[in-house]
Amino acid sequence: MPEDSCKVHLDDGRTVDICTTRGADTYLQSYQSIEFKLFSKNMRDAKKIREKGRRKGRLSAAVKSRLTLLYFMVDSIAQYSSLEIFTSIVPKLEIEEWIEHVIVELKEKSGDKKWAQTGTLEQHDTFLLNPCVSMFRHAIPTQLAFEKGFFKVLSEFVEARKAPLLPCADIADTITLLVGNAITSTLRVFDPIWNAEKTFKKLESCGMLAQFIRCSTVPQQHDAFSVLRAFHELLQCPVLIKKIFKKGEPCSDVV
Q: Of the four, 18, 77, 120, 124, which is 20 to 30 A from 249 by CA?
């Protein structure tokens, strides 16, 4: 399992730890004169690994560790880099390739009998979801998530557990955090900034608002600011609440 440290060697001979803000920013800034392609390279490698695994019907332990590392590097860059440097260095196309990969794999997991029965994921699949928490701190990944239907796919992934069953605590926590971060980003860094009602309407229309609320009921050891902020903003939309939570509406029925 990756620790919270990931040393990367730069072309100029320096070594940086991308699990620190200084290291992640320095790593990204090393791409000021050349195109940043880490995300697309890692996702293409991950795609090849998973396609080969599906043909064989299994993945070896070494290959699973490789997948975990590929996702962990994306997570580290998104988590530790400053918002301004991430936005200025990482091309939109790189983020698109990342989110498209996540969507494809979530669709695969939604049809997995083990997921439906247990609500658990193996470590390499958990690390598929983890970068979403960090990515949705940033405006462009969040915007692309809405544009590409990510939240509908995520809603169907949770729904595959068949209510009243829910994901295990770790996965439920990841889902509430990533949705909470996405909501916070739409209110903080979108241009133009969305209002809360627009965000919640989009999440409700694809089924994700209900699944977000359901996942938030799984006990966790800590409260996340973005999740608390999301519920605070929802409570500021009384007209919307009355509409989507009245009897017979999908959101009300699921919750």
A: 120
Average the pLDDT over 210-232 and give the result. 87
| CA 63/CA 71 separation, integer angstroms | 13
Contacts of 240 (CB under 8 A, 6+ apart): 197, 200, 201, 204, 234
- Mind listing the pLDDT tens digit for each residue in 94-109? 999 999 999 999 999 9
Strand partners for 8: 16
CA distance 159 to 89: 36
- Per DSSP, the three-state class of 19 is coil
pLDDT digits (tens, 9 = 90+) for 52-70: 999 999 999 999 999 999 9
Phi, psi angle pair for 8, to nearest 5°: -125, 135
107: phi then psi, degrees, rounded to nearest 5: -60, -40
How many CB atoms lie under 10 A from the CB of residue 192?
Answer: 5
Helices (H), the chain: 21-29, 38-56, 61-80, 83-89, 92-110, 113-118, 123-135, 139-147, 150-159, 169-188, 196-205, 208-216, 225-235, 238-244, 250-254
Q: What is the pTM of this model?
A: 0.93
Report the Cα–Cα distance between both ends of the chain, in Å, rounded. 35
CA-wise closest residue to 74 among 54, 102, 53: 102
